[in-house]
């Protein structure tokens, strides 16, 4: 459903949030290792997240990536998805067809509307804080 870049962006944001709660910045290398993504690809994803004010980048010897603790609860998954994948998840065809709309629907068009609306609701109501806390308490996991 999400692009690989978006999956990595969500994982990276959660990992950065977890470390930010402990007052720690994380390096590109540590993030790439944690989310099992190539460093160069991870760097591009992190640039998008910085550009959209989701994470912060600090240069220098004690630099790295962080999120201000007071902002973690306000960052919704929708912001991360939009920063990386744009709005195609809300408008794209469920089968990936180039042309799919009310006038020219694909075979799953009507059924996919409900799925898309549910996904949109989940992305708009889920924040980084709850995801990070679920990982911290062992309810969910970031790695297999």
From TrEMBL:
<dbReference type="GO" id="GO:0003700">
    <property type="term" value="F:DNA-binding transcription factor activity"/>
</dbReference>
<dbReference type="Pfam" id="PF02082">
    <property type="entry name" value="Rrf2"/>
</dbReference>
<dbReference type="InterPro" id="IPR036388">
    <property type="entry name" value="WH-like_DNA-bd_sf"/>
</dbReference>
<protein>
    <submittedName>
        <fullName>Rrf2 family transcriptional regulator</fullName>
    </submittedName>
</protein>
<dbReference type="GO" id="GO:0005829">
    <property type="term" value="C:cytosol"/>
</dbReference>
<dbReference type="InterPro" id="IPR036390">
    <property type="entry name" value="WH_DNA-bd_sf"/>
</dbReference>
<dbReference type="InterPro" id="IPR000944">
    <property type="entry name" value="Tscrpt_reg_Rrf2"/>
</dbReference>
């Amino acid at each position: 459903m999400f692009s690989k870049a978006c999956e990595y962006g969500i994982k990276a944001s959660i990992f950065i949030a977890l470390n930010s709660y402990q007052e720690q910045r994380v390096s590109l290398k540590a993030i790439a290792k944690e989310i099992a993504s190539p460093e160069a690809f991870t760097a591009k994803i992190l640039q998008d997240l910085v550009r959209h004010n989701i994470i912060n980048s600090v240069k220098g010897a004690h630099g790295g990536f962080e999120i201000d603790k007071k902002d973690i609860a306000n960052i919704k998954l929708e912001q991360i998805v939009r920063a990386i994948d744009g709005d195609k998840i809300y408008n794209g065809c469920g089968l990936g067809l180039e042309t799919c709309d009310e006038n020219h629907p694909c075979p799953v068009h009507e059924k996919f509307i409900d799925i898309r609306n549910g996904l949109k609701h989940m992305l708009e109501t889920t924040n980084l804080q709850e995801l990070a806390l679920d990982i911290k308490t062992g309810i969910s996991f970031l790695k297999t």
